[in-house]
Amino acid sequence: MAFDLTDRARRALLELGFLPDFPPDAEAQLAAIQRSGAPSATGVEDLRGLLWSSIDNPESMDLDQLEWAETLPDGSTRLLVAIADVDVLVPGGTPLDRRAGANTASLYTGAAVFPMLPRPLSEDMTSLLADVDRLSIVIGYRVRPDGAVDQGGVRRAWVRNKAKLNYPEVGPWLQGDAPVPPRVAAVTGLEPQLRLQDKATRLLRAARERAGALALRTIEPRPVMSDGKVLDLEDIPDSRSRELIEDLMVAANGVMARFLDGARRSSLARIVRKPKRWDRIVALAQGLGTALPAEPDGVALSRFLQQQKTRDPLHFPDLSLAVVKLLGPGEYVLRPAGEDAPGHFGLAANDYSHSTAPNRRYPDLVTQRLVKALLAGTPPPYSDGDLDGIAQHCTQMEAATRKLERLMRKVIAALLLHDRVGQVFDGLVTGVTEHGTFVRLLKPPAEGRVVRGERGMDVGDRVRVRLLATDPERGFIDFGRA
Fold this sequence. Notes:
Number of strands: 17
Order of helices and strands: HHEEEEHEEHEEHHHEEHEHHHEHHEEEEE
Number of domains: 3
Structural class: alpha+beta
Number of helices: 13
Oligomer: single chain
Low-confidence stretches: none
Radius of gyration: 23 Å
Helix content: 25-40%
Shape: globular
Mean pLDDT: 95
Largest sheet: 6 strands, mixed
């Protein structure tokens, strides 16, 4: 059927309060930046000689992070994470900053990406692309053999990406399922460098899980597109390369939070509070044969989830989704100077900020300005009132982003299945509520409501359903029992 996905995505943005386009004053600022060219800086450390590399999605050009590691004499590992200096070209209070602060993030709709910053910046001038010199904020820390993190610090430096890698090529190799990727083999010393990063991040992950970090796995299928048409939906599998980057960034964000707090500077904290609906999590675990403590206990919940992932991998994404909903969403909050933050229950972290993706997330750009002011010995660029207002707005817009992504996943799935009405599929019952009974197909991983023959279905049942109807505009998919 003729259906304009990009137009539907734009209308969804507007319905949810986002700005799909850049206003004229922001476009004028961009033009001025392009005329003046890349910035210069004096008194900045030169780390371009290190063997930096990046790992991201194959299509990503808005590269925020580079990584490097070395083994220390005591057997621990020194890790450096370089973060793109976006603030150097997008100062606070400018038109581009105001537009970024309105949307608060790059928006990924499946049909199109609506970037937080214009592509000439986020995919070029402020991106850590291969073989170009870039200014960065470097977060350094030591990983001890037990996975503990210490000796954290932050500084400015010039860096140069020696290899732009992606998750699908690196993951299978690290897992032992594929030979060395050609782009890794082409750079002398890169193979042992990545192996060292992998070893250190395994220690980091194990330590976090012992402390109660939650290993959750939800299904958020991505569309396979060609010429604006949806060809398929694919689930992004677990990958050691994705875990490597996640582990490095979680540790780096903790270092950044402690760096600002140690200097008694206010900041933006990223938190997930102790779950108010813990009793429902306890009941959920009890139904699967596990007794959890009466009070919130991240270590016990983490162990339960790890056991269930091994015991029942097919149903684990749905268990994960239920736990995510019961935990409640993450928030941004003001962390006043010298005060403790509520902590991040899901990551088992007391100190946590978002600082590693300033091209894609506005709180990270704000944090970058806070740390640059600290390094320069100048007053903070934001008052506590400013930070509190930013935190509340970012939390509000993040909720809108979740609605946008859910809607567009449904729209895309309905469009993919539109020409397959009448076909029978294998599926899994994912929800039975007063609003209806819901089934996720095993392939493609699309979810819809059972409108005929749902009596007797229960969560977790394997079922066969017939596709009865789709409505791509609203993202509706209707099934009947086959």
